[in-house]
Amino acid sequence: MEFKVNSKELEKHLSKIIPAIPTRTPMKILENFLIEIKDGLMTIYATDLEISLKTFLNVVSDDNLKIVVPARMLYDIVKSLHDTTLHFQLQPNKKINLLTDKGKYSLSYLEPEDYPEIQTINGESASEINEITINGEELRSSIERTAFAISKEEIRPAMTGTLFDFSEDGLRFVTTDGHRLVNLLIKNIKSPIKKQYVVPERAVSVLTKILDERDVKVFFANAYVSFRLSDIELIARLISHKYPDYESVIPLENEFMLKVNSKELNESVKRMMLFTTSTTRKVKFNLNKEVIEISAEDIDLGASGEEKVQCEYNGEPMEIGFNSQYMNDILNHLSDYEDIIFKLHSPTKAVIIEPAEKKENVDLMMLLMPVRLNV
What residue segments make up the domains of the chain, in order of their start? Predict the structure, then answer.
């Protein structure tokens, strides 16, 4: 049998699902695409068992089929071709020929029996599925704004993902690694089901690569989440561990306010990072009414730096230390805000960092633990 498809159209679809193909795996079957054609619709699957991607496109075919083909070899061949019609011809010797007007390429294929079952939420009870629709750019922006604070420590599994928290206020995205926390509320996304879901880091990382300006339908079930665009779907197993009570760590007594230009502070912190030690990465903020003195010192190299940044501060003079890398990450993800507010209490208490002016339907708060200066 044979089928036909445009090479550039196929390349576009394969490029979206190739991220789910593992680079190294003891299960060699996972290094393949599963291709299924039914009534002229081709569905291509890729999975590493943690996430699964599938894409859909129309092809010219009079027959139905289901085969397994080497993923990276097929993708590399298709990507190298000019815009042309690609003929796929199945041979009886487990070979598949790819024909263009100028060339012929041959691959081996496998039968689909050994390919793992792609998980789906279709079998879930409708009452257990939480469905929302969100603009793709808005979802990507929310993930990118928060994902940097996801924990890398496997001993706290829940914190290795992004919390999607549906409440009366809207949809809240939360990440934390114990040193910093990001809490982003999108007020205009409502759901009748008030529940929390933890989406693994790998899933949100791949998701940002396939999102665009189109709306996304998101289906949360008990164990899985599905993100559906018009021509692609990402399915991931949810993290089953309960997320920590993030609201309990947000301080209520931070009465001192510091307002500063985010760009000026970020540039200063980046320069001070040149003078921090590789072990502590410590940067010191000396807070005064109108000026922050920012300094760092690498005793081993005998190097130090100090700068002054204009600010508005209503508290008593205070010296407080931060991990410069953590501070830099936070400031990088607030770079589209002109001014930011620090809410402080003491040199040993968590600091709240927020935009000075809020965007419509968005509440953003970041939390950073200070480091001791005398250590």
Answer: 2-114, 126-248, 250-368
